[in-house]
Design brief:
It is built from seven helices and 13 strands. With 323 residues, it is of the alpha+beta class. The chain has two domains: 102 residues, Orthogonal Bundle (434 Repressor (Amino-terminal Domain)); 202 residues, Immunoglobulin-like. Strand 10 and strand 11 form a beta hairpin. The N terminus is likely disordered.
């Protein structure tokens, strides 16, 4: 009968072989994930080692990097990647090279991306911008709240544009003193977030608003009139008026972690009805789309919807064809 040490040695050989393979061919997130697994380090320990190298990176960012939901691009993030090569005992430039290879692939694939679509690179850039805007509001992306339920109603106008959306959230605080929520709106390509408006509709009031024109990202602070204790639930509702871009072809919502129920409803103007609609999912911005399912358009209500009883990390959305 094999000894336990033999099983452990075999497992280490498999992990080392997987790591060698992804270090040669990528992608970056798979190589990072394999390297962390091969060293047996929890993300908190990786963060601790980075801080000893003088680099500050959150555990959430590290998690997103190894999932492929985000990619390090800012100078501080690239410093972290070089430090990770040393911490994880990897060859010099091995992870940085994979990042550069992915950038090159994004550039070569740019011609194949429809003008109204969002490329992998643009989604990653928006993620980095999102971190910066949250930092300006001095609010972590997590925010101290778990989502129990989220219902979005999106309106598409007569010019086929994204007119706006309304969101209702049911949340539970998982730390003391939470008194706000930072809402995120990512407009369609060509939008002007500085011309959008945010309306607090129920149990909240609008606070500071930040936006980034190039990526079409807007973040808005919604202030509660109470401080939640850990375990408290809260319901609030707000809306974003958009209407600043051209033709809209899809609406996507990203989730950093598993959570509660999510419902998305797309309502079309009677003067602009699509010929077909479908739902889709993605494990990350880098992953191929799957879970495609045709959605019937209701003639009476001119809308389609999807319901996720319990969301998983990744993206879910509805797309439609105009002709």
């Amino acid at each position: 009968m094999p000894h336990a040490t033999q099983h452990a040695d075999a497992a280490e050989d498999v992990a080392a072989g997987e790591l060698d393979t992804v270090l040669r061919g990528g992608p970056f997130h798979a190589a990072l994930r394999a390297a962390i697994a091969a060293r047996g380090l929890p993300l908190q320990r990786v963060q601790h080692h980075l801080s000893r190298h003088g680099v500050k990176v959150g555990v959430t960012s590290l998690s997103y990097w190894q999932q492929g939901a985000r990619r390090p691009q800012r100078p501080e993030s690239l410093r972290a990647v070089r430090a990770l090569e040393e911490i994880l005992r990897l060859p010099d430039e091995s992870l940085i090279r994979l990042l550069e290879d992915t950038d090159a692939q994004d550039r070569s694939a740019a011609a194949d991306v429809p003008p109204a679509g969002r490329s992998y690179r643009s989604l990653l850039k928006a993620s980095d911008v999102l971190e910066q805007l949250h930092a300006e509001l001095e609010c972590p992306i997590d925010g101290g709240l778990h989502t129990l339920g989220h219902h979005e109603r999106v309106r598409i106008g007569a010019r086929r544009e994204l007119l706006g959306r309304e969101s209702q959230h049911i949340v539970r605080a998982h730390r003391e003193g939470v008194d706000r929520f930072v809402a995120v709106h990512h407009g369609d390509p060509g939008c002007a977030p500085e011309r959008m408006t945010v309306h607090a509709l129920e149990n909240c009031r609008a606070g500071r608003v930040r936006h980034h024109h190039d990526t079409g990202v807007l973040v808005a602070e919604l202030l509660f009139d109470t401080r939640l204790r850990a375990g408290d639930t809260f319901l609030f509702r707000y809306a974003v008026e958009d209407g600043t871009a051209d033709v809209s072809r899809e609406y996507v919502r990203g989730f950093g972690a598993a959570g509660g129920q999510y419902a998305l409803q797309i309502h079309f103007d009677e003067q602009a009805l699509p010929v077909r609609c479908h739902r889709f999912t993605q494990h990350s911005a880098a992953a191929p789309r799957g879970g495609r399912q045709e959605l019937p358009l209701s003639g009476r209500h001119r809308s389609v919807h999807l319901v996720e009883p319990r969301v998983r990390s990744g993206l879910v959305g509805i797309g439609w064809d105009w002709e």
